[in-house]
Amino acid sequence: MDFECLDAKLKDRHGLEMGLLSTEEYKEMIKPVYDYIRHNHPYVTVFLLNGDGILCPLKTEKFEMFVLLGVCCTFHPFSDFVSVSQSLSVEEMHALENDNRNKVYDSRYINTINADGKDGMLVISNNQMFFDYYSYRYGAESFHGLEAKDRMQYLSSKCNKGEKILSFGIIAIVFTSSVYQDLARDIRNALASRGKNAYLLFLRDVSYERLISIDGVECIVVVDCPFFEYSGPEIHVPVVTPFEVQYALSGEWKDFDKNLFYYNELVHDSLSTGEGETSSSKALERIDVTGKALLRLKNQDVPFSYEDENDKSVHMGQSGIAGHYNKEGQ
């Protein structure tokens, strides 16, 4: 951590609210950095935040400034921050100089050169999530000896999921940030043009608990930062990415990226083959049908009961859970 740089950024910034965002790898640094800021810049308010594997501004609260302890997302950079850095040994530098592959460094390595090699890709990072992205997409290898997962098995499983999407009736499209709202809409409209019922849902936290609460759907499409992918326990419906939808609608595997989706191309192909709706009004009708289908689910619940009928705290979310079952949902 460059404390001189941190001091310069915090100088005379009275009333600043900043986030101290860290991954598990750097948990031992949290207290020393926090104590340093509190002692040397008492006019700054520091909030402790936890990052999951890779630090991405789309996955955390918004603050004026951040101290970042971990590998940062390369797709969504932070604007005002100070971060940890990492250096290569002399031996490692020599080894890289003699390697002709295209080199990808994580955010902790500064003043490094990304040479345009022609013999594959080499990832210089000991962060598994960072390496996995490039391994799955490009078949990259790890400079630090991280284990590569089975790329073909991973991609084949995605294609297998994609083949089933056209058999689903109601599909939820979850987007985790406003950055992906337009992409989520394109996916919804493309599905609607194929006669599918699809609706949008914003969830910043794509966790098991959140996903299992999505009821009345047969499939969930998650539009998220490419470094992240749901890996929790299996839920009641398939969880896919835009890539699987692209594969399902086009029937082709041209390239791989989790957020790969060619909306205009898909809609044009569906209309030219007669598989899609012939107007945008038809697509809007499908969206309206989706809403009506979801409304039919509103009475499929178990009513709660309580002894004191005048106690409305349970309605306000202040107390109580379903105590016993009087009847089944209709």
UniProtKB/TrEMBL annotation:
GO biological processes: protein histidyl modification to diphthamide
GO-annotated molecular function: 2-(3-amino-3-carboxypropyl)histidine synthase activity
Pfam families according to UniProt: Diphthamide_syn
Region (Disordered): 308-330
Domain of life per record: Eukaryota
Matches recorded under InterPro entries: DPH1/DPH2, DPH1/DPH2_3
Protein name per the record: Subunit DPH2 of diphthamide synthase
Species for this entry: Ordospora colligata OC4
Lineage of source species: Eukaryota, Fungi, Fungi incertae sedis, Microsporidia, Ordosporidae
